[in-house]
Amino acid sequence: MTKLFEILGKFDTDSDCHKLLYAPHPLPLKYREGRLYKIEFEGDESALDAFVERVLIDPISQESRIGGQPAFEKASFVLEYGMKGAALDLEKEMILNYYRAMENPGFELKKLTLRTRIYVFGEGAAPEQFVRDIVNPAIHTHEVLKAA
Questions:
Q1: 53-56: which pairs have CB atoms within 8 A and are 24 or more residues apart?
Q2: 8 A C-beta contact, residue 115 and residue 81
Q3: CA 35, CA 70: separation in Å to the nearest integer?
Q4: Are the C-beta atoms of 147 and 74 separated by less than 8 Å?
Q5: What phi-psi label fits residue 114: left (phi over 0), alpha (psi between -120 and 50 degrees) or beta?
Q6: How far is CA 52 from CA 21, 62, 84, 99, in A?
Q7: Sequence-ordered list of residues with C-beta below 8 angstroms from that of 56, at least 6 positions apart, any chain
C-alpha cells in the first residue's frame, strides 16, 4: 500500500515570495510551504500512522494531511520538488535509520519519498522563475501542479 502525508505548520502564514527568488518578482506574490512524505509499506496501517505521528510531526507546531491532495485550493500553482534517487537526502536517511532501529515497527517500510511543496498565491503567478531559482536540476526532480 501507499500512503501520503503532507506536514504543514499550524502557525505558518503566507510569506513574501521574494525570499525564495534570486531576482525580484514584478508581482506581489505570496507562498506557503509543506513537506510531503510518500510511504510505500506492507503491514499494519495504524502502526504506520503512529510512526508518522511520533517521528515526522511536531504535535505543537505541525499538522498532517493524508492523501496527497494540495492543501491550499487558492494557490495559483504548486511547485513540488525533491531529491533525485542517487542524491544524498539526509532527512530521508535519518528517518530510515530510525525505522531500522525499531524492534517491532508493525509494518514494513518498502519505499520512502520526500518532496517539498511550495504553494504560490497571487494573480498572474507563473512557475518559470520559481522553477529556475529553486530547483537544482543536478539533484532535484520537480513538477508543477494546479492547486485544485
A1: 55/95, 55/98, 55/99, 56/5, 56/7, 56/95
A2: yes
A3: 11
A4: yes
A5: beta
A6: 32, 12, 23, 10
A7: 5, 7, 37, 64, 95
C-alpha cell at 23: 531576482
| Residue 57: Cβ within 10 Å count | 16
CA distance 16 to 48: 35
Residue with cell 517539498: 116
pTM of the predicted model, to two decimals?
0.92
Q: What is the pLDDT of residues 1-56, one digit of tens each?
A: 999 999 999 999 999 999 999 998 999 999 999 999 999 999 999 999 999 999 99
On whether the CB atoms of residues 37 and 96 are closer than 8 A, the answer is: no
Amino acid at 142: H
pLDDT at 148: 54
Question: For 105-142, how does the pLDDT look when each residue is reduced to its tens digit (9 = 90+)?
Answer: 999 999 999 999 999 999 989 999 999 999 999 999 99
